[in-house]
Amino acid sequence: MIIRPASRSDYAEYVRLERQIAQMHCDAMPGVFKPVADRSEKEFCKLLKDADWALLVAAQGATLLGIALSHVREQGESATQKASRILELNSLCVDEACREQGIGTQLIDATKKLAKERGLTRLELNVWGFNEGARRLYEREGFGLMRTWMGIDVERYSP
Asked: What is the rounded distance in angstroms from the CA atom of residue 31 to the CA atom of residue 151?
């Protein structure tokens, strides 16, 4: 297995993995997430060309075992915060059949390296409350709580 930047030929495998993660989110929170909707090949290729986005893949031959999608986010200076350039990990997915084999760790390590090479301030991510496996992985990899973002479904709320 190797970790490398994605290429156009990875599209079908990328979609296969994105479907897994999308379905997991939809099953856990159907009021928030839509059923699986594939990114078009045109969108995928545009993403690959955009310098602010990075898609790393864990590949074994033509089969993708995992993906890590991240983008550069500029945080402007405010009255309370310093300006910074952050790499935000938007999506990490390891094939359901390949979990607990260190693939997620290798993808995170490669993403950390990418952030450092680009001279970025931090690597950040968010994780949904239901995703305990991902939270444990991120904590093992050194990520710590920075803020808590909470929500309530007001349609179900009754005073």
From this structure: 12
